[in-house]
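URGENT: need a sanity check before tomorrow's submission.

F., can you look over the Glycosyl hydrolase family 57 record below? I want to be sure the sequence and structure line up before it goes out.
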Amino acid sequence: MAGLRGYALFHLNLAFSAVEEEARGEIIRRCYWPLLDLARRDDLKISIEATGFTLEEIARRDPGWLEALRAGIAAGRIEVVGSGYAQLIGPLVPADVNRANLRLGHAVYQRLLGCRPDIALVNEQAYSAGLVPLYRAAGYRALVMDWDGVAAAHPDWPAAMRYYPQAAIGADGASMPLIFSNTIAFQKLQRLAHGDLGPDDWLDYLARQQGDAERGFPLYGNDAEIFDFRPGRFETEGVPDETSEWARLRAAFRAFRAVPGYSLVHLHEMLTLEHPEHGNRAIRLESPACPIPVKKQTKYNVTRWAVTGRDDSAINGRCHALAERLRVSGNAGDDAWRELCLLWSSDFRTHITERRWSAYGERLRALEARLGVSAPDLPAPALAPINGARPTANGDILEIETDAVRIRLNTRRGLAIDGLWLGDKQGEPLCGTLPHGYFDDIGYGYDWYSGTLVLESPARAKVTDLTRVSPEFARVAGNDDIVIDARMATPLGIIEKRLIIGASAAVVNSFYTLHWREWPLGSLRIGNITLNPAAFEEETLAVTTHNGGETAERFALAGQEVDHGAAVSMLVSATSGFGMTEGRVEIGDGRHSLGLSVSRANAAPIGLLTHKRIKDRLFCRLSLSTMELDETRRPADQVPEQSNGGYRFHYALHA
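Structure tokens as predicted:
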């Protein structure tokens, strides 16, 4: 068998969610110093990635560590890998914030380390094609991304691709060199260090990675804070035993290096590996089924930073409002951008401690006050009595027609959309209701409505707005847009729903205000727009949206089965989604399109797509999720922090 190049990349993060600030000095002592010692004492090649914030914290608490790091870099033992100033989730923040994060990170690397890394570890291994041009523009020449999370969505890829550098195609069509990390590999080394896997078993696992040609393989690519320290996220973490876990790592790396043909290398040495068939392929990591690939198993997906935690959707929305203020101002200083990057950090959105969560709220409010960003509210236009053509009723169905819109609404089902035409009011509606029995499959034997709200909670009855209503009608003073208001009683409290039908613009605005007494654990999905299959050509249907980049990403749907909202388990309620970082997603076939946009300052949702064939018919649905379930949810934190008028949400459908 041919040789094996192995790299060990340690991720340093002093903002670790479950760790109180006063424990940071202990982490430096118990985790970061032994890491440097690993490279120095045994002359091992180690790669280290840290955010600018983490390096600043180390400089403040233990400047000697940075001196030792610089010495290791100068000696060629340590390679620095970059990421940004804060560990934010790139596919969930606007391009302006991603650019600022990369720029501010480089400034810290240069100031504290005297160098600018040119290989970047994608934060939390949460990738989108829109990020590639931003990394390239920031001066990075290669990315590190998890193989397992990506390859699961590409079963046609040869397994041998994981051992060689590839080229990730960005949203702009240009590519960037890519090195794969590996979830199973880093979990194997963690188990060895924790005493759950023997050294011989680990070496046997690595031997199985060899092939007929030289290969590269990640020995490690994850947190440094879990060796001889426990962050305290889970009750099952246990405690370190009497044997130093860093000593086990040292012994493992020595044993690896002692195997003939094995070498411990830096990441930049992985880029020189070549293979005529399996290396340097230009590939798209994203897919319609998984538009934002993430490391680890499927339960660990992008929803954990978007719509779970302690009401992630609301704090993300407030961060969007701050980003918009900075963008519009045009002359904001680095201090404001730096603070916003920190406020968007992933660690505030998962296992954050009570004390740090309280401090986070104070910092968020302080930046809002500094920038003059007040609590968001949705527009409440002045109303006037309706004139001209009034809605007509045909049983439970209301029909409204303006110069730009034709819509049918079901008053028996909370003003669910029975059919919607935008611009072209002839032919087939773009979306609406597919009735019970439309699909010849008992698993889909339901009414599939559009324009609805659904809350699903474990072991509780579903809460929806699908109840009979007696709507009231008005118009917007000054432009004749038609306003339809309705109130619905639910077991949790009142739902107020308002639709504004464009008179001259092909748009329907939907506003919700939820006056709920409690917020159970579960998923809250709004819109639930069901496409009319007869209105679109299935072969050319595609979704377009932004996932953190400046360039929109397009996902062709022909032949693809997608179900972002499918539960992974009883604990994790969704699998993936669209970041919608410019507040819009569009689905169309080149002839017709349907756009869905949101007001993110109130709540920043993600888009969940379902697209599959049910026997001979297409089922395609787009939902907006503001709340999902996973292990980071806290029952006491479910009441969203919005105005005292209730929880408000707005989306619009447009051509």
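My own read: Residues 24-42 form the longest helix (19 residues). DSSP finds 14 helices and 31 strands in the chain. If you see anything odd, call me.
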